[in-house]
Write a structure and sequence with these properties.
Elements (H helix, E strand, L loop, with lengths): L27 H15 L4 E2 L2 H15 L19 H12 L2 H13 L1 H15 L6 H12 L2 H5 L7 H15 L9 H17 L4 H14 L3 H34 L8 H4 L19 H11 L15 H18 L1 H4 L4 H21 L7 H18 L7 H17 L7 E2 L12 E2 L10 E5 L16 E5 L13 H8 L6 E7 L4 H13 L1 E3 L5 E5 L7 E9 L4
Parallel strand pairs: 4-5, 4-6
Antiparallel strand pairs: 1-2, 3-8, 6-9, 7-9, 8-9
Helix pairs in contact: 1-4, 2-3, 5-6, 5-8, 5-17, 6-17, 6-18, 8-9, 8-10, 9-10, 9-11, 10-11, 10-16, 14-16, 14-17, 16-17
Length: 553
């Protein structure tokens, strides 16, 4: 009897499609490549020459580095007194590196937002037993990273994107890889990081609201919450002191108010405003308007921004957060689901941050994180409702389509940008004065509502710099301080020059009128000369003119 042997072949392992790859930790080499590419992109886009950049971002760093505080009198108006820590760092970069290299380094810092969003999305979705694919988690991160406000920060020296990265990093530390609660080291590092940001810019306190709310929900039991709150408060305070303590002490010793000229109703500094100053331009009127405001500025961006824009990410995050919190309060069954506590922590933090921002600032750039986290909040709703929808090829394709769709419908706000010089070794910012020697020992007053203080570093050291006729909304902030400015410009022994911006809207003529009407300062327009700067753009450039105070009316 013959025996027939059948050869059995081992099954061939099928290659997994990229759309089916599970979300996992991405190698630091891939992230390094991303940061290098994004840094290179940042050095190619035209430089940000928007209002705040030319107003105080250059001036404050240079002034702090050269000890100009107290010698000059508020060349950047009320923003001259903002904590200069970040701007000092930027000005050092400008002095050390060519302009494009500065843009590259700052682009790398902004680019950290993508891996931070990916890590946060991956950890939270895994805690909800969603098992997302790699492309789903990346799509969520990319959808958040390319929020409208991020476009305005490409190639920019502004700090808002870096502070948002700090919040995202703090939230990542709040949700460890092992699904357990955060340890005291993680809480301390995260809180200290946010404290550093608050010391650099007080508006980052809204991010601290987000983090503090999330901590109190993530930690279980009142003992853990109390000890966690104390750890967070201690490390946050240390961070604030490190980056803002020295400046606050200087302001207190010089003016009697550590955050001069703000909150002067509390500190009652003699040179501060008699009433507490607030920028009222964007604030809502009443509680009902505050609650509905996010849906209003979705279709009218000028409610929270200087220029109109369209980006629904914040509204997506707001609605998703409300849905998560409402479901948790209404349904015991929902509360018992895996990952609900973490989702509620993020959702409640989002809502509290949005409420604090609306009540105090309501200015878009102070809460960029809300737009960047919005897509993740929507993904959490899906993950808690039907976790299986976030895995597999269809989920990957749907995630990519959603990210692309958000990118397409987003309409960035108008932003003034200046092209790079042809010379790659050129500095980030430069200016040529028509006759630098003429300004030795003179008084130079940047004048009008359009900013000019970025020109400060290019005047002689002996020139004293100040500002006249500010914007109407900011004028009350320095109401008491302005007497010093007027004493300076009325000194008959000093030559007076005014720097005025020429724009297509006729700001030059309007500023001359306001100088004469408000300060009784006349300008000799026949001797005005143009200042050539690397931030000039078609229709926007600066002139310097001799001027004189005409005496009391």
């Amino acid at each position: 009897m013959s025996v027939q042997t059948v050869s059995q072949k081992a099954p061939v392992a099928q290659r997994q499609s990229v759309t089916d790859l599970p979300a996992s930790e991405i190698s630091w080499l891939w992230w390094a490549a991303w940061l290098a590419c994004f840094g290179a992109f940042s050095m190619m886009v035209p430089r940000d020459a928007s209002f705040d950049v030319v107003h105080y971002h250059f001036h404050n760093g240079w002034a702090a580095l050269n000890g100009r505080d107290g010698y000059d009198l508020a060349p950047a108006e009320m923003h001259s007194f903002a904590s200069p820590g970040w701007q000092l760092f930027v000005w050092l970069l400008i002095e050390w590196f060519p302009g494009r290299a500065v843009a590259f380094l700052l682009g790398v810092l902004q680019g950290l937002g993508l891996p931070a969003l990916y890590a946060l999305s991956r950890r939270l979705l895994l805690r909800a037993d969603a098992e997302p694919s790699l492309l789903v988690a990346l799509s969520i991160a990319a959808a958040g990273f390319f929020a409208e406000a991020q476009f305005g920060l490409f190639g920019s020296v502004r700090n808002d994107s870096v502070f948002t990265v700090a919040l995202l990093a703090a939230l990542v530390l709040l949700f460890p890889r092992d699904d357990g609660p955060p340890g005291w080291k993680s809480l301390g590092i995260a809180s200290g990081l946010l404290g550093l940001c608050i010391g650099l810019k007080l508006t980052n306190a809204v991010y601290a609201l987000f983090f503090a709310t999330s901590v109190l929900i993530v930690l279980k039991g009142w003992r853990s919450r109390v000890s966690g709150a104390l750890i967070c408060a201690a490390f946050a305070f240390i961070g604030i002191v490190i980056t803002g303590g020295a400046w606050a002490l200087y302001l207190y010793n010089a003016y009697g108010n550590p955050i001069f000229p703000l909150l002067n109703g509390v500190f009652d500094a003699p040179l501060g405003p008699e009433e507490a100053f607030r920028d009222m331009r964007y604030l809502p009127q009443g509680v009902a308007e505050a609650i509905l405001r996010p849906f209003a500025f979705l279709f009218d961006g000028e409610l929270v921004n200087e220029h109109d824009f369209f980006d629904p990410r914040l509204q997506i995050g707001y609605l998703s957060s409300l849905a998560i919190v409402t479901a948790a309060l209404a349904s015991r069954e929902f509360r018992q689901k895996t990952g609900v506590r973490e989702a509620c922590a993020l959702a409640a933090g989002f809502i509290v941050m949005l409420a604090g921002w609306t009540a105090v600032f309501s200015i878009a750039r102070y809460i960029i994180a809300a737009w960047m986290i919005g897509p993740l909040m929507a993904a959490l709703v899906i993950g808690l409702w039907r976790p299986g929808l976030l895995s597999g090829s269809r989920a990957s394709l749907a995630g990519l389509a959603a990210a692309v769709g958000l990118f397409v419908i987003t309409q960035p706000s108008l932003l003034r940008r200046a092209p790079w010089p042809a010379d790659w070794s050129a500095p980030y910012v430069a200016a040529d004065l028509p006759d630098k020697d003429a300004y030795e020992g003179a008084i130079v007053a940047f004048s009008g509502g359009y900013p000019s203080a970025f020109l400060s570093p290019f005047f002689p050291e002996t020139a004293r710099l100040t500002h006249l006729v500010p914007q109407d909304w900011s004028a009350p902030a320095l109401g008491g301080y302005r007497s010093q400015i007027r004493d300076l410009v009325r000194d008959p022994s000093k030559k007076l020059y005014v720097v005025i911006t020429e724009t297509a809207e006729g700001s030059f003529a309007e500023t001359i009128r306001r100088l004469e009407q408000i300060e009784n300062v006349t300008v000799d327009t026949r001797q005005c000369e143009r200042i050539n700067s690397t931030l000039d753009t078609p229709g926007v450039y600066w002139k310097i003119c001799p001027a004189a105070w005409q005496g009391m009316n």
